[in-house]
Every structure is written in structure tokens, then in C-alpha cells.
Design goal:
This protein is α/β, with parallel strands linked by helices and about 400 residues long. It contains 12 helices and 10 strands. Helix 3 crosses helix 4 and helix 4 packs parallel to helix 5. Mean pLDDT is about 80; it is low at about 365 and about 380-400. Keywords: GTP-binding, Nucleotide-binding. Pfam families: AIG1, Macro.
């Protein structure tokens, strides 16, 4: 609406035709005398509507500036509505193509981009783990609007996709962590002395409206398989993560940080050139071992060597408990869902800091050509001459 008048737009008049004079009465009752552009009036209990509540959002008409006041007010208003939905426990909200009508006059292509940007940004920053379904309402005959929203949505899906690789020694809980991230048992987890993950395994699932690919790897220092056996398996698996991982999750158990854990980090830095820790997050499992009322940052700070490693990873660290924090967690922090949202937020922030990039290693470009040549000729890639060890093959991916 414009000027704090609920009948200033076509949609407001449509609602009045359905509800009648009760719309104006309830609007005046809920609105009060003061108003600010970007704020909304929430009207509840309107008869004859399938929804329990209607948001009336105050906006400015389009001023032909894509970063101007009118657009900023639209962004703020969408965020305010989504925040209110969470605060009130609403399970769904339907947004029309805000501002593209005759009165406000925004270009539909701009409306599509702004609305979807705000929805995706809100979802990224959101801590609340309850379900909130956001629907965009478009008239079937408005082909231009449908095309605009479809185009922007597809673009967002590509940009929002994330690819992560789990690294750590056998028994650290990598496979269980992967299952916890996806909320279902997709990865093989084994408690035997040998690694439960014999081959690299990659799975993809839609999380928070974006595509997430997770690659689980065999543990570091597993001696029962030769490097020559492992190379082709890792190469084949990592093609599922092409053109490169956005994040390495280095997995440790909550406990004393020994020389064995330090050796894992050293091995990663040795085999992954181009500063892999710039793309790394330290993730702890067995969160039930974390002392009561202690968060993981405090636990890390008590061990200097561990603290040094986390600082090299930009201070990025989180904690999960793959068994005990799923159902009825003792508090919000000790909740896998809370930690998952924090992990996704951390990865997104890291990707932004890396200017949208992912891990690459130009030094392996020639090795990639050899691999492709072998695959095309049917030769075994196990004979590939790689001097730096099989984990260097993660950097096979290239930025296109």
C-alpha cells in the first residue's frame, strides 16, 4: 500500500470486495496513528479468507533507482514480514509480486530479484529451526511475472548451491556427521577399526531451498588400503563435487587435541596447496563430551595448539552430537538443527569472504588431463604418477 492507505492498491480493493467493511474497521483498529514506510500493519481474524492474517506493507513508489530509497524500503519490509512470521509462529506466508502494480510501478524483473534476494538472505541468516513456507503468488495470465521469477529463482539455485568435503581420521564421526547434516542415513557409518567409508561417497540434497553436496572420504592414516588403490576411487567420487568444493570440514572428536590430530591438519596442508585452511571449518563431533554450560569456542580456547589451528581457519568452529542432540536437546545450543543452521551460515559467510570462489589447485591441471586421457582410453587411473599423495587429488577441480 501507499501512504498508509489500505485501499491504495488493487490487492487491497480485492480484499475489501471479499471481506467488506470489516476490513477497514480491523485495519484502523490494528494500524494506530503512527506509521513508517517499510513497516506493516498486521490484520488478523478477517472473515471469508483462507488465511488467518493479512500484512499491509507501506511502500514508496518506484523512483527509477535500483538502489534507492524505494527499493531499500521494499527490502526492509519483506524482512520485517518474515521476521514477524517467525515471531508469531506462522507456518506459511504468501507474498504477491509486491510493488509491480500501477500505483507503485516497480519493474517486475526488479521486483523478482529483490523479493527472492530477501527471502534467500533471510533464510541464510535465520536461526529459528521451525518450518516456514514462503510462497510467491502470481496471476496465471501474468506471463512476464512468471518468467521473471522463474529466471531469478533458477539463478539463485545455482549461486546458492554448496559443495563440501569431510576430512578427518577414521572414527572421528565424519559419516555420522554427513547423515546428521542431511537428516537421514545416506552415508555408511561403521564402528570397526577399519574406516566405515571405504570409498568416497557423494550425496546431494536440497537444504533450506539450496542444493548441498556432501562428499564423505576414507579416514586419514588408514593403512589397510594402498594409495594406488585409493587414487581412482577418490578421483571418480570427486567428479560429483565438480568444479570444486566450497568448504572442507575438518572433523575431530571433542577431547584432547593430541599430536595425531595435529598430524591430520599438517597432512591436509601438505597435500592441499593454495592454503586449504582458507576454505576450512573445524567441526567437532561427540558434543555430549562438552562440559555443561560450555560452548565450543571456550573449549577450543583452553588448548593452545587447537586454538592455533582454529585461528588459521578464520576462527570457524562448530560442534555436533550425532546421537544425543537430535530429539529433545537439553538447550538450543546443544541442538543439531541449531548447529546445522550455524554451519550453513558459516560456510556462506566464508564463501562471500572468498569472493564466491571454491577450492582449486592449478598445479594439478596437467594431472587432470592425464586422468581424462586415461578414462577416454579405458586405462586404469591407479597407475597415475602423483607424487604428493592421493589426497592432493581433491584439488582436481577447476574454476570454469
Amino acid at each position: 500500500m501507499v501512504g498508509h492507505y489500505h485501499l491504495s492498491t488493487r490487492l487491497g480493493n480485492i480484499l475489501e470486495n471479499i471481506v467488506g467493511s470489516r476490513l477497514t474497521e480491523k485495519f484502523i483498529e490494528a494500524a494506530g496513528d503512527e506509521w513508517t514506510p517499510g513497516n506493516f500493519v498486521l490484520v488478523e481474524g478477517l472473515p471469508g479468507l483462507p488465511s488467518n492474517a493479512v500484512f499491509f506493507l507501506d511502500l514508496f513508489p518506484w523512483n527509477e533507482d535500483e538502489d534507492g530509497t524505494a527499493v531499500q524500503i521494499l527490502r526492509s519490509g519483506i524482512n520485517n514480514i518474515l521476521t514477524s512470521c517467525d515471531d508469531k509462529g506462522f507456518r506459511s506466508v504468501a507474498l504477491p509480486a509486491l510493488s509491480d502494480g500501477i500505483v507503485l510501478g516497480f519493474p517486475i524483473s526488479l521486483v523478482a530479484r529483490v523479493v527472492l534476494e530477501q527471502i534467500y538472505e533471510y533464510e541464510r541468516e535465520r536461526v529459528n529451526s521451525s518450518d516456514l513456507s514462503v510462497r510467491i503468488v502470481l496471476l496465471p495470465e501474468n506471463k512476464e511475472a512468471i518468467e521473471a521469477f522463474t529466471t531469478v529463482q533458477e539463478d539463485f539455485k545455482i549461486k546458492a548451491s554448496r559443495r563440501i568435503v569431510l576430512l578427518g581420521k577414521t572414527g572421528s564421526g565424519k559419516s555420522h556427521l554427513a547423515n546428521t547434516i542431511f537428516g537421514e542415513d545416506l552415508f555408511t557409518a561403521d564402528f570397526s577399526a577399519k574406516s566405515g567409508t571405504v570409498l568416497c561417497q557423494a550425496e546431494t540434497k536440497c537444504i533450506n531451498g539450496a542444493s548441498l553436496t556432501v562428499v564423505d572420504t576414507p579416514g586419514f592414516f588408514d593403512t589397510w588400503q594402498s594409495e594406488e588403490d585409493m587414487k581412482p576411487k577418490i578421483i571418480r567420487c570427486l567428479t560429483e563435487c565438480s568444479p570444486g568444493p566450497h568448504a572442507f570440514l575438518i572433523v575431530f572428536k571433542v577431547g584432547r587435541f593430541t599430536k595425531h590430530e595435529q598430524e591430520v591438519v599438517d597432512k591436509i596442508c601438505q597435500l592441499f596447496v593454495n592454503d586449504p585452511l582458507q576454505h576450512a571449518v573445524i567441526v567437532f563431533t561427540h558434543g555430549d563430551q562438552l562440559p555443561p554450560d560450555m560452548e565450543i569456542e571456550e573449549f577450543v580456547a583452553k588448548q593452545k595448539d587447537l586454538s592455533d589451528v582454529v585461528q588459521k581457519c578464520g576462527g570457524r568452529c562448530l560442534v555436533f552430537d550425532n546421537k544425543r542432540w537430535n530429539n529433545k536437546p537439553p538447550d538450543q545450543y546443544r541442538s543439531n538443527q541449531f548447529q546445522l543452521q550455524a554451519l550453513l551460515k558459516t560456510i556462506n559467510k566464508m564463501v562471500e569472504e572468498n569472493k564466491g570462489g571454491y577450492y582449486t589447485d592449478e598445479d594439478l591441471k596437467e594431472e587432470e588431463k592425464i586422468i581424462q586421457k586415461m578414462e577416454n582410453s579405458g586405462e586404469s587411473a591407479a597407475s597415475l604418477p602423483v607424487n604428493r599423495g592421493f589426497f592432493g587429488m581433491f584439488s582436481w577441480f577447476r574454476k570454469k
